[in-house]
Amino acid sequence: MDSNRIIKCKVTGIQSYGAFVECGQKKGLIHISELSNFFVANIEDVLALNDEITCYILEEQNNKLKLSLKRIYDIPTNVAKHIKIISGFISLERAIPHFIEKAIKHIKGEKHD
User: Fold this and answer.
1) Which pTM value belongs to this model?
2) For 101, which DSSP code?
3) Which residues of the chain carry a pLDDT beneath 70?
4) Closest CA to 19 of 11, 10, 9, 27
C-alpha cells in the first residue's frame, strides 16, 4: 500500500450514501461502498461524527478527495468469502426469526435450508 496515499481525517457529516470528512485543508467523501468489505446498511454502525480515522486516497481533484476506509483495513478476498458478519440490533432482530424457524424445523426433523 502506498503510504503517500494514506491520510488522517475527521468525520464531519454522515448521509445515507457516505461520510463527509475534513483532512486538514482538504475535504472528502467516503462512499458507503468504500467503508467495509462487508455490507453496510447504516453508516452510523461504522462511523460517528467527529471520529478521527485513517483513510486511503482513491482520487484527488481540486482539494476534494475520494476516500476509502476499507483499503486501509483490507481483508483478502479469499478470507472475506469465508466470513459472514451480521452486526447491529436491527440486523440481529431481522435474523433471529429465521434462526428460530430453522431450529424448530431441525428439532421436528423437517427439511430446512
Assistant:
1) 0.66
2) H
3) 1, 74-96, 98-99, 111-113
4) 11
3-state DSSP of 68-79: ECCCCCCCCHHH
Residue type, 41: A
* Residue where the block lists cell 427439511: 111
| Architecture per CATH, 3-75 | Beta Barrel (2.40)
Looking at residue 80, its amino acid is A
pLDDT at 101: 74
Give 3-state DSSP helix, strand, coil % of the chain, rounded to 5.
30, 35, 40
Closest CA relative to residue 71, chosen from 30, 20, 42, 13: 30
Q: Residue with C-alpha cell 475520494? A: 66
Report DSSP state, residue 89: H
